Amino acid sequence: MNNEFSDAVRVTKDYYDSDDAHNFYYTIWGGEDLHLGIYESEKDAIFDASRRTIRQMAEKSSFVGKKARVIDLGGGFSGSARYLAKNYGWEVVVLNLSEAENQRGRKMNTEQGLDHLIEVKDGSFNSIPFPDESFDMVWSQDAILHSDNRSQVLDEAYRVLKPGGEMIFTDPMQSDGCPEGVLKPIYERIHLLSLGSPGFYRDYAKKIGFQDMGFDPLDEHLTLHYARVLEEMEAREAELRKVVSQNYIDNMKKGLRYWIDGGKKGYLAWGIFHFKK
Q1: Does 267 fall in a domain?
Q2: pTM of the entire predicted model
Q3: 104 contacts 77 by C-beta, under 8 angstroms
Q4: Which CATH number does the domain housing residue 175 bear?
Q5: Domain for residue 1, yes or no?
Q6: Is 85 contained in some domain?
């Protein structure tokens, strides 16, 4: 364990390195991705919805049709990196905490013939281990919420971007008008004291010099996604029990219901941010 990690980062790493979490996400999320999907129907496959998110994010970039070097912050199994490398020809560095996920990601990159375009690096995006102006694009999906210093993550993203570079990301958040205290069960579940918000990210990005290229609010898809994951869990619970503990399954169901409830009440937000340096 890297001693430079904060307590919050260490908790996140331990969680995603656990066999239960690793097997759960690989089994239920479709084997490639760990992020939220964009749904055309509430019965969409989680895999298809997750792929739709990547495509919708990527098409916002001015680097479509051009060469680009991308860093994916918290890239999980490297599924998004493989999609970006395969469909856009971009070179991608995946910076991710979980060594278990990274081992699987490297194996899948090699199996799919994409390892020449993708580098997987163990580490925390609280301190990106690359020099200033190293990348054309910073990419992240539903990972920055786990940081205990989100301002620092944006600072680091700005630092490693070349002039004219772009940051495109999603994150589960609290809504800008969320009443205080109502999301305590979610905070406790992810071992943090808060979530970001659309206003926080846009205001801080502007403060440090980013140009705000727009935010697409997609709040309803957060609720749809967690409801879809819960439905899939319940339908495949017998299969899931073979690789995941019952205690993990029970706690995950409880956590998913918190997210679904918060989304239905308008306390949560989700969407695609696009900033330019």
Answers
A1: yes
A2: 0.95
A3: yes
A4: 3.40.50.150
A5: no
A6: yes
Angle at Cα 175 formed by Cα 173 and Cα 177, nearest 5°? 150
Domain with 32, as residue range(s), is 7-276
Residue 112 lies in a domain: yes
Long-range contacts of 201-206 (CB under 8 A, 24+ apart): 201/150, 201/154, 201/171, 201/173, 201/273, 202/273, 204/150, 204/151, 204/154, 205/154, 205/167, 205/273, 205/275
Q: Are 63 and 135 in contact (CB under 8 A)?
A: no
What is the count of structural domains for the chain?
1
Six-digit token string for 62: 């001015």
pLDDT tens per residue across span 113-127: 999 999 999 999 999
Report the candidate in 269, 221, 235 with the shortest Cα–Cα distance to residue 52: 221
Contacts (Cβ under 8 Å, ≥6 apart) of 219: 175, 263, 266, 268, 269, 270, 271
Q: How many other CB atoms are there within 10 angstroms of residue 151's CB atom?
A: 15
Angle between helical axes of 99-111 and 7-17 (0-180°, round to 10) = 50
Each as own residue / partner, the long-range contacts of residues 230-235 (CB below 8 Å, 24 or more positions apart, any chain) are 230/256, 230/257, 230/260, 232/28, 232/46, 233/28
- Which of 160, 181, 174 minimizes the C-alpha distance to 70? 160
Name the 3-class secondary structure at 224. helix
pLDDT in tens, 39-82: 999 999 999 999 999 999 999 999 999 999 999 999 999 999 99
